[in-house]
Design brief:
The protein is of the alpha+beta class. Helices cover 37% and strands 33% of the residues. Helix 2 packs antiparallel against helix 3.
Amino acid sequence: MKTILESQNNDSKSKKNVAIIASAMVILLCFFTLYLWLNTDDNSSDIDRNDLVIAIVKSGNLIQDVRAPGNLIAKNKQWLSARVSAKVTKRLLEPGAVVTPDSIILQLSSPELMQQYKRVKIDYKVAQAQLGALKETQAAARQKKQADVKLLDIENQQAIADATVKKKLRVDKIIPLYQYNEAILREKKLTLQLDISRFELQQLPRLQASLLNVEEAKVEQQLLQLALLSEQVELLNVRAQMHGVLQSIAVEEGQEIAKGTTLARVADQNSLKAELRIQESQARDIQLGQTVEIDTRRSKINGIVSRIDPAVVNGTVTIDVELPKDLPSEARPDLRVNGIVEIKRLENVLLLDKPAHWQDRKNVFLFKLTGDSQATRTKVAIGDSSTNTIQLLSGLVKGEKVIMSDTSHFQKYPTLTLN
C-alpha cells in the first residue's frame, strides 16, 4: 500500500507532463499558423487597380529612330570682313533687310587711303604724260634722221659727180693733182657718212622701242597701283555680294576697325539645310540617305541625311539634312529645330507602349489581365524597340491588356488580384 508521500510525488509528475505536452502543442500551433500564412501569400497578392498603368496590345508599324536637336543653316552664306583698316561712318541697312549683290550695307572712311589714292592717281597721269612726250620726241628724232640721210645722199651724189668731172680735167692736165685728190676724198667721206646715217636710221626704231618699253612699264606699274588703291577705295562701301537677307551686323557707327574684322553676315534664306547634333553613342546607326523628320514647332519637314561629320565634337556628331525647296514661312537661318532620323521600320507587328522604367531584354514576365479583377504572370518574347513602343514576338495577342507599371516586387506571385 502506497504512502501519502508517494501519492503526492506521483501527482506532481503528472502535472509536469501535462504542462510539457500543452506547451509543445501551443508551439506547434504557432508554427502551423505561420506556415499557412506564408504559403497563402505565395499564390496571390492584392493590388490597387488605380495605381496601375494598363496597356493594350495593338498592331502597327514600329519605327526605330534617333532624336537630336539642331538648327537650320543657310547653304549659301557670306561673311563680310574689312579689307582695309578704316572707320565705320554709316550703317545703311539693318538685319532683316533683303539685299542684292550691289546693296551697300556699311560705309567706311580712311583719310590715309584716300590721300594715297590721290597721290598715285597724279603719279599715273605724270607717267602717262612722260610716255606721250617720249613718243613725240622719238617721232621727231626719226624724221630728223630721215632728213639727214636724204641730205647726205644728195651731197654724196654731188661729190661723186664732182670727182668724175675733176678726173677728166686731171687727165687733160687742166687742174692740179691735189684738187682731184680732194674731190676723191670728199666723195669717200660723204659715202661713209651716208652709210653710217643709214645704219643709225635702221637701228633707231629698235633703240626707241627699248626706251619706250621702259616708260610703258612705268605707266603700267602706276596703273596697277592705281587700280589696287581704287579697289580698296571701292571696298569702303561694304556690299552684300549676293542675293539674300542681311543676318547680322557686328560693328557700330564710329567704330575703328582693323583689316580682317568681321563686319556682317548675309545668307540665302531660300536655300536651307538642317544640322543635327547626334549623341556619339547613337551616331553609329546613322547612314547617308536615311529619312529625317524636322520639327520647327509649327511645321514638320521631311528631309534626307546628306552628310555625316567624321569628327566628334563635345560628345556629338554633326549631320547635314537636305531639305526640299518649298519650306514653311517660319523657316529661316539659325532657327532651332528637333530632328527624328528613321533608323529602321517594321511593318504590321504587335506593339506595346513603352513605359519610362523599361529595360531592353529579350524575354520578360508581364501580368496579363484575364478578367476584370485577375492578372496572370505571362512570359513574353520581346523584339526591337523604339523610343515609344516595344515589338512583341510571342506570348500575347492583339487586344489583350497588360500591366505596364513596375511589377518587379510582384514577380514571385503567379497571379494578382486587382481591387
